[in-house]
Design brief:
alpha/beta; D-Maltodextrin-Binding Protein, domain 2; four-stranded mixed sheet; 21 helices; 14 strands
Length: 495
Amino acid sequence: MRNYRKTALAAACVILSSVLSGCGDTGTKNYDKLLDKDSPVAITIWHYYNGIQQTQFDDMVAEFNNTVGMEKGIIVEAFSKNSVNELADSVVASLNNDAGADTLPNIFGTYAETAYIADKKGALADISRFFTDEELGEYVDEYIAEGRINSGSGDESLKIFPVAKSTEIMMINVTDWAKFAEAENVFFDDLSTWEGLAATAEKYYNYTDGLTPDIPNDGKAFFGRDSIANYMVTGAKQLGCAFAEPDGDGNVVVSADKEVLRRLWENYYVPFVKGYYAADSRFRSDDMKTGNIIAMVCSNSAASYCPNEVTINDDHTYPIDIAVLQVPNFEGCDPYIVQQGAGMSVVKSDDKTEYACAVFLKWFTEEERNIEFAVNSGYLPVKKSANDINKIISYKSDISDNLKGTFEVAIGEINSYNLYTSVPYEASADVRSYIDSTLTNTAKDAYEEASSRIDAGEDRTAVQDEYTNDAAFEKWYSDFAAGLGNVKNSGFAIS
């Protein structure tokens, strides 16, 4: 009897061990049993890739179909919707069952705002169950956290999967910088903070103004940046009061801290109004190309558009060299940088189809393959181990000096800065657009008004002070807060 009980206990332990092993795994092997290579499951993907990026993605889909897909019984078909906005519009139209809208695909490329809308309609699958904790731990933590779009209410389900990301970098025309730096004794280190950048830009304006002593007030702008929203949103977070934060109960609190906005205003609006910053073309790379500025902040994915020559007044062209630096931070603050780039969401269906989608996404983001896709499209890979400049160079030995510098700096930021993206909520896209356009438009309007008065003979210092003093900020802040409160469903109320 005693031996029987020992045997039964041993058997029970073996059974319990097996059950626990199954729970410790994600159950991937069990999900594998759902797939049948003789009866393949078809999955469709909507993306926004174009040109070389689309060709490369299509080639990878074909490779998957001919290897892992054939082995497991998965067939992937991909369709381009041309642009991020068109893709988002197509997804929303399908969610709303609009007349003429296509049926939702199994996977679609998306930013958090669109995924949030889809998830509110119950359309998104939680794909975390198809990955072990160890597997998810291979990805940059903040990228996975961004995909947990309901984490503010305690829901840790994974609704957006990272495939390629980007951040921002600073690019400098060092050919023109060198002359200025020697004359004015300035250094790259002076550009490490927003305050230092503004002070350096003032020196550059005065330096270039002094090159033509017979023409007053013709100094040149030093700096411009592509995304004002990134400056505002990331800067507010860095300064200690983000525009939007979850409250822990599933709601998002929108705020506009006056002291935070004052520092943001002082380090973009003020130098812009004084002519130290500029935004004359659609993109700052175009302003660099015409010599209107010599420094810019842009996405690392846009680095390939940075010019290698400058053309002045359409009749004088000269070559330039480019240096890549990290994006400035505010003095006395921990470093923050934006994380951006669409991920992919899986539409709710059945275990077999959802698992097939996860198999493809897992395959697509394997280290070497993800480096290949990311580097060729100017983006950053999503796994921690892949964010290594030596691995990137070993893969793409013919990389240009500009792109090499871009990847070195961007990867350095990813590995050393705090990565940030605003939480999604009902009005997040509208609030972001409002924040961007308000600072941009008010700065441009004030600059043009001030310039007209100065050109008409008014004293430059007196006019600029009128647009940048305490009273000017109070008026700007009051208008900004009132406008934010008027953004539909923003959740912001003026206190």
